Recover the amino acids of this structure.
């Protein structure tokens, strides 16, 4: 489809641009990329615009002298093509041409649009739009020749112009000056099939474009006298979408990035959309007052504007406009625009965090959380404080611009086997009703360079590009979840750098250019950092946080060592600053807690045998006491160490005894004794009885 390009002024109409002068309509403030392009046309013949090329952009205009009101300027939003053309025609350019691999060459606008269209396609191409048959492919070799004509302005040097069928065109033979035109190459990334593996035709096309940049000559402007190139402007999502040797191979080729809008631009856009929203949601004149479309008809205030602008951090102005349109469609007031942005980003309006459900879950589940994670009262207490803060939306509230940061961030540090991973799973169940809401990543699997591609997706042209990232895909599918990064200290530095963006902005863009938002997630990082440290002259690693230390002393040591690791060890002080006061230190488990964990794990073994195999397991008091002594003698490895010893001393002997049984259902197994074995483990005295469907009788 051909896009009509009009003047930025509100009185313009039709596809033809205005003349080079427009009293009272001069642009007061063009976007920076347009100013840069127009200001360098005398030295650069080609440009690569990359970034937010599909966004709309704000331009500040002067009002007509006869227009009323105290304000003498106003803002209006325009497409990239409109912004560029309405800056370039004032420099004397006569036509804007667009080229893409699907439609070929199309004349979009300009006072010489008719003549340029005939030069491109012949006399039969007098109408705007596609001049090429839909079934006629675009050949890059043909495009190269046309590019040369466009850059030279069809400079004839006394020769008569020819149509594509080689007939002389008498009515253009008197044109002596070259045409001053602009070429936009749209969807430039779609010209090569794979930018890293160009075909012969693609390589020749881009090489000739590079040569054309060097061979081009500026053309004098009759109006201003400036000698300016007929520019070729490539539009690409990123610089790497085009061959590197084209982008960086000539001083004549300039790259200009178009960034996402800053807070100031989003605030101006919010004001503009507020006016449109107020006008569109006004009561219809039905003669009797008419019903009001919306419940809330108050005019948007400064708080509404600021909230809308801050809620759209990381979004384009176009996304803001679409969010506002969707709000109108759904009958939402401007004060509810933050919810409209949520629908636009996540596809859901309902926010579980703002409902009473999560607050009720935290109140109800607090005791269960403390019972499930044993011996960590202070760690669980601090975790609950952070979750309550998240439920009230107060995470990062002290910042002037909290943006769209994650709902909550926790860093669990402390000795191994003390319940860090268990607490993370418990948090997921507490908040979202199931442990399945906990998305776990073992960061030891992301210790190699380029392993970040697994999380975010591989770049274009690399293996795994189509699959996307494991992290970004999962969060897009379900944004309300706990994301657990286990043993974060083992991750590659490239992975850690990505966490900076997540913690600060609450979003990541994957290898396919799709943005994922983490604003509704709770992020939990775990690590054993701080317990051990290299000390002494030999630099040997030793334990600096000992069992039995007072908690406040152990906490102080671990916090200091964690900070030292990020600041001095890996040179990422900014990452430590993002964690801030969210570091939760876990204590060593004591003998009492170890016994409780032992009983809990024995109970789990009994439950699994009963539910899966129909086997009833009991331990005599003597066996229970002896086995507990073996498994809890050394608690340095915490609950995980107790589990490993139970596996060796109880589960393995049970498996040997039950494996050869012809029928397990209805079997009762009693551990009557525990004694040392010759291999350093223990041997069990077992009594196996077939009881049918009956239970095993009294006992543990």
């Amino acid at each position: 489809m051909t896009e009509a390009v009009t003047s930025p002024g509100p009185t313009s109409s039709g596809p033809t641009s205005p003349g080079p002068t427009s009293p009272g309509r001069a642009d007061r403030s063009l976007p920076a990329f347009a100013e840069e392009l127009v200001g360098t046309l005398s030295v650069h013949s080609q440009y690569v615009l990359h970034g937010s090329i599909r966004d709309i952009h704000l331009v500040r205009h002067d009002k007509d002298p006869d227009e009323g009101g105290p304000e003498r300027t106003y803002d209006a939003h325009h497409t990239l093509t409109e912004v560029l053309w309405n800056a370039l025609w004032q420099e004397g350019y006569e036509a804007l041409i667009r080229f893409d691999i699907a439609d070929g060459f199309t004349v979009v606008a300009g006072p010489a649009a008719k003549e340029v269209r005939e030069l491109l396609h012949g006399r039969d191409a007098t109408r705007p739009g596609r001049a090429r048959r839909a079934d006629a492919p675009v050949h890059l070799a043909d495009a190269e020749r046309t590019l040369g004509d466009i850059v030279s302005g069809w400079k004839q040097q006394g020769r008569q112009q020819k149509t594509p069928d080689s007939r002389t065109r008498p009515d253009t033979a008197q044109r002596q000056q070259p045409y001053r035109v602009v070429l936009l190459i749209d969807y430039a990334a779609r010209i090569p099939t794979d930018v890293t593996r160009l075909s012969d035709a693609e390589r020749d096309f881009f090489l000739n474009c590079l040569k054309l940049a060097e061979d081009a000559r500026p053309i004098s402007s009759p109006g201003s006298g400036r000698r300016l190139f007929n520019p070729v402007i490539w539009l690409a999502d990123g610089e790497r979408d085009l061959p590197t040797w084209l982008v960086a191979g000539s001083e004549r080729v300039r790259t200009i990035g178009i960034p996402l809008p800053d807070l100031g631009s989003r605030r101006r856009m919010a004001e503009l959309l507020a006016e449109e929203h107020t006008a569109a949601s006004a009561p219809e004149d039905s003669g009797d007052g008419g019903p009001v479309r919306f419940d809330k008809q108050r005019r948007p205030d400064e708080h509404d504007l600021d909230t809308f602008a801050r809620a759209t951090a990381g979004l384009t102005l176009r996304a803001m406009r679409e969010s506002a349109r969707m709000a109108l469609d759904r009958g939402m007031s401007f004060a509810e625009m933050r919810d409209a942005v949520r629908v636009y980003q996540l596809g859901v309006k309902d926010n579980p965090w703002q409902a009473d459900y999560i607050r009720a879950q935290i109140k109800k589940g607090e005791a269960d959380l403390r019972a499930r994670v044993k011996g960590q009262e202070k760690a669980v207490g601090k975790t609950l404080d952070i979750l309550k803060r998240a439920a009230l939306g107060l995470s990062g509230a002290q910042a002037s611009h909290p943006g769209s940061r994650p709902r909550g961030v926790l860093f669990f540090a402390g000795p191994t086997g003390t319940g860090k991973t268990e607490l993370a799973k418990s948090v997921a169940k507490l908040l979202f009703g199931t442990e399945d809401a906990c998305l776990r990543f073992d960061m030891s699997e992301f210790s190699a360079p380029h392993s970040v591609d697994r999380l975010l997706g591989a770049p274009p042209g690399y293996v795994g590009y189509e699959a996307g990232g494991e992290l970004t895909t999962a969060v897009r599918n379900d944004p309300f979840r706990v994301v657990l990064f286990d043993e974060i200290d083992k991750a590659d530095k490239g992975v850690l750098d990505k966490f900076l963006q997540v913690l600060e902005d609450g979003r990541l863009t994957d290898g396919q250019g799709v943005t994922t938002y983490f604003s509704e997630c709770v992020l939990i990082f775990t690590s054993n950092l701080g317990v051990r440290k290299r000390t002494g002259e030999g630099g040997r690693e030793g334990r600096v946080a000992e069992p039995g230390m007072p908690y406040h002393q152990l906490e102080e040591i671990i916090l200091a060592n964690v900070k030292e690791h990020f600041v001095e060890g890996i040179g990422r002080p900014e990452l430590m600053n993002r964690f801030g006061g969210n570091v939760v230190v876990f204590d060593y488990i004591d003998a009492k807690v170890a016994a409780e964990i032992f009983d809990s794990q024995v109970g789990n073994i009994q439950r699994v045998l009963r539910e899966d195999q129909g086997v009833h397991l009991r331990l005599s008091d003597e066996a229970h006491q002896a086995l507990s002594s073996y498994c809890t003698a050394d608690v340095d490895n915490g609950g995980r160490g107790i589990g490993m010893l139970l596996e060796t001393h109880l589960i393995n002997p049970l498996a040997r005894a039950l494996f050869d049984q012809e029928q397990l259902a209805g079997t009762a197994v009693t551990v009557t004794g525990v004694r040392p074995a010759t291999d350093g483990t223990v041997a069990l005295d077992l009594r196996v009885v077939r009881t049918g469907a009956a239970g095993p009788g009294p006992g543990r």
